[in-house]
Amino acid sequence: MSTTTTTAALPQRHQSKVDPQNVNRAVKSLLKWWDSKSKTENSESLENDGFVYLIVTLKRIPQLDRTNPLMIPLPHPLIDLVAEDPPELCLIIDDKHKNKITKEAALKKIEAEKIPITTVIKVSKLKSDLRKLEEEKRFELYFAERRLMPMLPKLLGKEFVKKNKTPIAINLRHGSWKEQIEKACESALFFVGTGTCSVVKVAKLSMGRKEIAENVVAAMNGIGDLVPGRWKNVKLFHLKLLESLALPVYQSVA
C-alpha cells in the first residue's frame, strides 16, 4: 500500500450539497453553548481544546491508506505559520537507512530554506527524545520521513495515536519540504478510520463565527469531493466541540 499523503487537487466540484444556513445555525448554537458554559463553570475544570470538530459518517468504509490523511484546503488555516509566536512543528527522520539524511543536514536545509520545522528527531532516539521534548513543548503537528510510516505506530504507542498526533508523511527525497509542510498546516486532515465514522478538526474557537462557518463548509465540500464514492458515500455530517452535543449539518436523502 502506498504511503504517499493525498495532496492532489480537489476534483472539479459539481453543485455543492452543503446548506450554509444549516452550518451557520450550528456554529451559532455551539458558540452560544460554549459562551454560556464558560461563564457558569470554573475555567480550570472546563475541558476544552479550542477546536471545532466535524464528525463524518460514511455509508461504506473506503479502501484507503489509513496512515496518511486526505488533505482538505481551508480558507482559514488551523496552524498560523506567520504568527508572531511560530508553531512548534516536529520532523522525524530515518537515521538508520543506508541512504539516510543526517540530522545536521536536515537542520541546515531547514535553516537555509526557511522551512517551518522547529525540532528534528532521529528515529533511533524517538522514544527517549520525544517523551522529554513533549514535556517541554506542545507540538502542533508531527511530520515523518515517508518510509518510516509503517513502523511509527508501534514506536509511538497507542496513547500517542489516540491523542490524534499521527505524523504526516513527507517525501524528503523528492519535492519541496516547505511546500509539503505548508500544505498540511493549511488543510483539514481527514484520517480514514477502520469504521464508517471519523472526526476532523476544522476550525478554532479563537476564530470568528464567519471564519468557522467558512472552514466547515470548505471541509464538507472537500470531503464530499475527495472520499471514494464522493457524495454518494457521505451519509451524515455533524459539528461539535470537545464536550458539546453533536449538531447535524448534513444528512443524505438517498
UniProtKB/TrEMBL annotation:
Keywords assigned: Ribonucleoprotein, Ribosomal protein
Any one Gene Ontology molecular-function term assigned to this protein's record: RNA binding
A matching Pfam family: Ribosomal_L1
Annotated region (Disordered), positions in chain: 1-20
Keyword Manganese in annotation: no
InterPro entries listed in its UniProt record: eL8/uL1-like, Ribosomal_uL1-like, Ribosomal_uL1/biogenesis, Ribosomal_uL1_3-a/b-sand
Protein name: Ribosomal protein L1-like
Species this chain originates from: Arabidopsis suecica (Swedish thale-cress)
Lineage: Eukaryota, Viridiplantae, Streptophyta, Embryophyta, Tracheophyta
